[in-house]
Amino acid sequence: MRALRTVLPLAAVLLLSACASSHILTGTPRPPIDPAQVRVYHGPPPGGYEEIAVLRTASGAFTYGAQNKTDSVLRKLREEAARLGANGVLLQGVADGGGSGGNVSVGAGGGRWGGSGFSSAGVGVNISPTQQYGSGVAIWVANPPPETAPPPPTPTH
Questions:
Q1: What is the pLDDT of residue 16?
Q2: Quick check: 63 and 7 in contact, CB under 8 A?
Q3: CA separation, residue 66 to residues 13, 102, 114, 130, 150 (Å)
Q4: What pLDDT does residue 103 have?
Q5: pLDDT tens across 118-138, in order?
Q6: Which uninterrupted H or E stretch holds 50?
Q7: Per the structure, how many domains does the chain have?
Q8: How far is it, in rounded angstroms, from Cα 91 to Cα 79?
Q9: If you average pLDDT over every residue of the chain, what do you get?
Q10: Does residue 113 sit within a domain?
Q11: For residue 72, which of 56, 59, 61, 62 has the smallest C-alpha distance?
Q12: Which of these, 57, 37, 41, lies nearest to 49 by C-alpha position?
């Protein structure tokens, strides 16, 4: 029972740390903002920006589906940027992690002890998918461009 009290908190800490995002400050953080205000840029925004931090994150350990993994990575990048007061993330990349998603292991054993024989067998199944990893730069854009550009004017003849 005592070992269980030690192992459970340790397992919880390890599980939570596996889901965490990280950052390396490269500029000055600002007061936190709402993650909904953070925009993802695939190239430098017009008008320039101020770099705040380099961000790294991963999709959840049990996130299935390519789109769900990408959505998870982008959400976590926005949340980490918002904590630093950045209103933008300059996306550097998103990639699948190495390794295989699921594994099956089979084992068997036997022996003899004190005149009695014993045997055992086991099957282990790992159904956790590979994670997707993402990185970006948390930025502050003084005058962000409009979310959607107005449609070009239609020519009149």
A1: 41
A2: no
A3: 27, 15, 54, 10, 31
A4: 55
A5: 777 777 766 666 888 999 999
A6: strand 50-58
A7: 1
A8: 14
A9: 79
A10: no
A11: 59
A12: 41
- Residue 59 and residue 73 in contact, taking contact as beta carbons nearer than 8 Å: yes
Tell me the two tokens of residue 137. 């730069």
Contact criterion met (CB below 8 Å) for 77 and 134: yes
Q: What is the CATH number of the domain that holds 32?
A: 3.30.110.70
Alpha-carbon span 144 to 46, nearest angstrom? 8
Contact residues for 21 (Cβ-Cβ < 8 A; gap 6+): 55, 56, 57, 76, 77, 79, 80
Percent of the chain with pLDDT over 70: 66
* Nearest one of 143, 141, 147 to 30, comparing CA atoms: 141
20-55 per-position pLDDT tens digit: 678 999 999 999 999 999 999 999 998 899 999 999
Which run of H or E residues covers position 7? helix 2-18
109 backbone dihedrals φ, ψ, rounded to 5°: -155, 165
Assess if residue 105 is contained within a domain: no
Give pLDDT, residue 13.
40
